[in-house]
């Protein structure tokens, strides 16, 4: 029996599995990875004008959302597939799952396929840390973390690694989630304080992060819970009809966003009038817009997640890929690029 054609080197594309991703993170070190990602996202935000920018393409249902998030800098193209289904945890499933592709613009050929559930957790935490680095009050050391699910530990460790947070105050409507988060942060170098309510968690915190999962207009932070001189990372509101902050609190805050057309639909500011003023985080980073003006100001990062952050994360991951990675045969590569049919016929198994 004659041998069937084997995939060429051109046909094979690196694939980063969940196991590969975890091995890479452990090799690099989680906090080192979070610092590196934060710096790289900042560098890409500084060249904001070079990227294609479009709001993610979302397919909504009563129980969740499935989204595609594409962008390109003219040299490389990336997209992420991601879902958000808050009820999944009741069935033992992740609320968020994701995978992504990094490609070269010159040929359109993919450079890498990758899991992105784990990678999204890292890039989301890194983006929160980036916002806090530029907007939080100087010397902030205490963080309140409201919503202690799958993202929580990454948020706490990113703020520790990038901003020097040394204390995290935890609250979740599910005490088991808080117990899980506190247990996982043991030995991290953080002082961990479980709290009986969201209001108790905010006491003494200079940085407050909300990352709840319910797909509804909730009020996790009320106006009377927040004093002066606080920075808020509101990252749970990421689709229409899902918010975490009272509108009165937004009226008191200076709000910063990633990509305003997307955030107007998906973020906390979907509650506000169309002329509610916001500033772009990338402009704060470049110095085009003032960030925190004084110690008493309330700053708010209305973070919904944007494709440029995923582009950065995929490129960071691509730099970690070494020889010996898993390879997928996903590109048809005939000897004559015009003879795809001939490639198909040569692959036919001979009859017995």
TrEMBL record:
Pfam families associated with the record: OCD_Mu_crystall
Source taxon at top rank: Bacteria
Signal peptide: none
InterPro entries (UniProt xref): NAD(P)-bd_dom_sf, ODC_Mu_crystall, ODC_N
PANTHER family: KETIMINE REDUCTASE MU-CRYSTALLIN
Annotated protein name in UniProt: Ornithine cyclodeaminase
Natural source organism: Pararhodobacter zhoushanensis
């Amino acid at each position: 029996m004659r041998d069937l054609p084997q995939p060429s080197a051109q046909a094979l594309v690196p694939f980063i599995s969940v196991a590969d991703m975890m091995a890479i993170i452990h090799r690099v070190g989680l906090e080192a990875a979070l610092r590196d990602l934060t710096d790289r996202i900042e560098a890409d935000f500084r060249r904001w004008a070079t990227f294609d920018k479009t709001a993610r393409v979302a397919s909504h249902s009563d129980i969740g959302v499935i989204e595609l998030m594409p962008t390109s800098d003219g040299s490389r193209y990336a997209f992420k597939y991601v879902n958000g289904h808050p009820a999944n945890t009741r069935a033992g499933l992740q609320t968020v799952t994701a995978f992504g592709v990094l490609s070269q613009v010159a040929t359109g050929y993919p450079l890498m396929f990758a899991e992105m559930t784990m990678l999204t957790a890292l890039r989301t935490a890194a983006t929160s840390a980036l916002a806090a680095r530029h907007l939080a009050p100087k010397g902030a050391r205490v963080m309140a973390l409201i919503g202690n699910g799958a993202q929580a530990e990454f948020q706490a460790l990113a703020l520790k690694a990038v901003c020097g947070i040394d204390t995290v105050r935890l609250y979740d409507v599910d005490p088991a989630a808080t117990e899980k988060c506190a247990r996982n942060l043991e030995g991290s170098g953080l002082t961990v304080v479980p709290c009986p309510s969201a209001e108790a968690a905010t006491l003494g915190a200079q940085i407050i992060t909300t990352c709840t999962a319910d797909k509804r207009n909730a009020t996790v932070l009320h106006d009377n819970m927040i004093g002066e001189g606080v920075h808020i990372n509101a990252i749970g509101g990421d689709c229409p009809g899902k918010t975490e902050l009272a509108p009165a609190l937004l009226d008191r805050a200076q709000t910063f966003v990633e990509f305003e057309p997307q955030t107007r639909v998906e973020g906390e500011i979907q509650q506000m009038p169309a002329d509610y003023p916001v500033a772009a985080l990338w402009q704060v980073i470049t110095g085009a817009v003032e960030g925190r003006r004084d110690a008493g100001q309330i700053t708010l990062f209305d973070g919904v997640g944007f494709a440029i952050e995923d582009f950065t994360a995929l490129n960071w991951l691509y730099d970690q890929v070494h020889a010996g990675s898993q390879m997928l045969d996903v590109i048809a590569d005939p000897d004559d690029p015009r003879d795809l049919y001939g490639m198909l016929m040569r692959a036919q198994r001979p009859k017995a």
